[in-house]
Amino acid sequence: MAARIERLVTVGMFGAGRPGLPPEGVELENNVWLVGDDEQVLIIDAAHDADAIVRAVGEREVLGLLLTHGHEDHINAAVATAQALDTHIYLHPSDLFLWQEFYGDTPPDFELSDGASFMVAGVDIATVHTPGHTPGSVCFVASGLGTVFSGDTLFQGGPGATRWEYSSFPQIVESIRTRLFTLPGAMGVNPGHGDSTSIAAEQPSLEAWLARG
């Protein structure tokens, strides 16, 4: 059975109690990506609803839970999902401070590093460090499936937000320019929120992003 990509959209609240947001937070839709076949799967991000993720996995063996970055809405179902599916959580160490804001002293299982590789259903998934949105943001390149999972680094229409003190607009643009826009133009881009796009579709927007700042 050939490897395939499945998109699960989960909905939940983000930012409860944070300054500038309603007390209950704001509602967000997130993409959770499953990559694999009928026997095994990797999960990319774990947002809001562990039960929904577990149902989407079904009886398949879960080879790992890969996190694109440490923001609450991408990790808030990670521990419950990993426990339910008996798998390991991977996060870049530069985002450990964000993980700790949500989970305290309960650590992820393993550190992600630039170039780390995962194999699922005969497909290699390579980790690419793309800081800017957060210091530890990464993307996952599945060349065999013609896809990059971009988290909150690259969306349809532009880069992810850089409004936090630990974020950097010049850095996210550099990450996109040097780590993502060097990928084949036909490669699909599956982000952490919203619709998918492609490298070629986003490349012409670079100068507009720089002008907008």
Entry keywords:
213 residues, Metallo-beta-lactamase, Chain A, six-stranded mixed beta sheet, 7 helices, 32% strand, RibonucZ/Hydroxyglut_hydro, hydrolase activity, Metallo-B-lactamas, hydrolase, MBL fold metallo-hydrolase
Describe, in plain words, how this protein is organized in 3D.
This is MBL fold metallo-hydrolase. InterPro entries: MBL_Glyoxalase_II (IPR051453), Metallo-B-lactamas (IPR001279), RibonucZ/Hydroxyglut_hydro (IPR036866). GO terms for molecular function: hydrolase activity. Pfam families: Lactamase_B. Keywords: Hydrolase. The chain is an alpha/beta fold and 213 residues long. The chain has a single domain (4-212), classed as Metallo-beta-lactamase, Chain A, CATH 3.60.15. Helix content is 24%, strand content 32%. The chain contains 7 helices and 14 strands. The protein has helices at 50-57, 72-75, 78-85, 96-103, 169-180, 199-202, 206-212; strands at 4-14, 26-36, 40-44, 61-66, 89-91, 110-111, 117-120, 123-129, 138-142, 147-151, 154-155, 158-159, 188-191, 197-198. The strands form 3 sheets. Strands 1-2-3-4-5-6 form a 6-stranded mixed sheet. A 6-stranded mixed sheet has the order 7-8-9-10-13-14. A hairpin with a 5-residue loop joins β13 and β14 (197-198). α1 runs parallel beside α3. The longest helix is centred in the last third of the chain and has 12 residues, at 169-180. It is globular, with a radius of gyration of 16 Å. The termini are far apart.
